[in-house]
Amino acid sequence: MNPLDGIEAAVTRLDPNGLTDVPLGVDEEISLAEAIENYTTNSAYVNFLEDKVGSIEVGKKADLVILDKNLFAIPAREINSTKVVATLFVGCLVYLSNHDHRFSDDGNATLEKLFCDS
Q1: What is the pLDDT of residues 108-117, one digit of tens each?
Q2: What is the reported pTM?
Q3: What DSSP element (H or E) covers 22?
Q4: Which domain holds residue 89?
Q5: I need a surface site. Which of 1, 55, 81, 86 has the fewest CB within 10 A?
C-alpha cells in the first residue's frame, strides 16, 4: 500500500490513478497538512505509540522517508507520482533509490556514512 495514494485521495477525493473524475463525497476533502498528520502523528496516537513514533522529536524512533518532490509545491493530483528517494527506519538508512540524488556537499552519496552498522 502506498501512503501517497491515500494522501492524494484524501486531498482530492479522487482515485489517485485517474480512474474517477467525480470526487467521492462533496466537500469532504482535507488539506495536505491534515492528510500528512493523519498518516503520521494521528496514526501513532490511535495505535498508542505517540510516545515512540509519529513525529520527529528527541527520544522518538526516526522512521521517515525522503521524497523527490515537495508535496506542498506540486499539484495535488501529482502526489502519488512522487518517488521515495530514501527510507530511514529507527534512524538507519534501509532504502536508497538508485536514481541520482545528492547526499553530501560534494554531490557524492557516501553510503558508508548513511547506513547504520547494526
Answers
A1: 555 555 666 6
A2: 0.81
A3: none
A4: 3-114
A5: 1
